[in-house]
Design goal:
It is a single chain. The chain is mainly beta and 221 residues long. The protein has one domain: UDP N-Acetylglucosamine Acyltransferase, domain 1, CATH 2.160.10. It has a ten-stranded mixed sheet. Strands 1-4-7-10-13-16-21-24 form an eight-stranded parallel sheet, with helices on one face. The chain has an eight-stranded parallel sheet with strand order 3-6-9-12-15-18-23-26, with no helix packed on it. The longest helix has 13 residues. It starts with a helix and ends in a 6-residue tail after the last strand.
Length: 221
């Protein structure tokens, strides 16, 4: 993202309002932070055009070498948002931290989120280091109370449970991960799968609901 004198000035205004701000932090002119005083930002971080952050998270800590590509949207109060180093959110990411004190999204180092991923932190979303998330993946830590039938589901409030990804997970395009699921280290989840149960390490899972197809072959790179 190239900076002009004007965009640099506008970025300086935001940077001065952050709780803490590292070096080489670039902010597009139309980016918006409802509560910039909550932002703790590392070095070499870029917020591209259309970035919006609404709400007042209890903690918002962004590591170094992090990029939010155009039109990423973050919301939630008072959920927690922690992003490690070397993380990319490609265009259209929707990140809902959740409105409970127990809500959070924690992302480890060296993670990648392709376009239009959806991350819900209501029940707690923990993604360990070296995870690759393809386009249109949904982490659904929250839903409705379908077991309540005496009133519309839209009026039953939220039902939530955590989702955990261990290290070195690859989730292919259009996957949905249901609340209460742990995806074990080294797993690959095939495109269009719906993950409703915990997985075992180093497995390839496919289908609806996702089932283990085979173990990943052990080959040194």
């Amino acid at each position: 993202m190239a900076e002009t004198t004007e965009t640099r000035r506008q970025g300086d205004e935001w940077r001065s309002l952050f709780k803490s701000c590292g070096r080489e932090v670039r902010i597009a002119p139309d980016a918006w932070f409802e509560h910039p005083e909550r932002m703790e930002v590392g070095d070499h971080v870029t917020f591209m055009r259309g970035f919006h952050m609404l709400g007042e998270p209890a903690v918002c800590r962004v590591g170094s070498h992090v990029t939010f590509y155009p039109n990423c949207f973050v919301q939630g109060s008072p959920g927690r948002f922690i992003v490690g180093d070397h993380v990319e959110f490609f265009p259209g990411a929707y990140i809902s931290l959740g409105d409970w004190e127990t809500s959070f999204i924690d992302i480890g180092h060296h993670c990648h989120f392709a376009p239009n991923c959806v991350l819900y932190g209501w029940g707690g979303l923990s993604i360990a280091a070296y995870c690759n998330i393809a386009a249109h993946v949904v982490f659904a830590t929250v839903g409705h109370h379908d077991e309540i039938t005496d009133r519309p589901m839209a009026l039953t409030g939220e039902k939530a449970a955590p989702i955990t990804l261990e290290e070195d997970v690859w989730i292919a395009a259009n996957v949905t991960v249901a609340a209460g699921v742990r995806i074990a280290r080294g797993c690959v989840i095939g495109a269009n799968a719906v993950v409703t149960r915990d997985t075992e390490p180093m497995g390839l899972y496919v289908g609806v609901p996702a089932r283990r197809l085979r173990e990943r072959k052990m080959v040194s790179g």
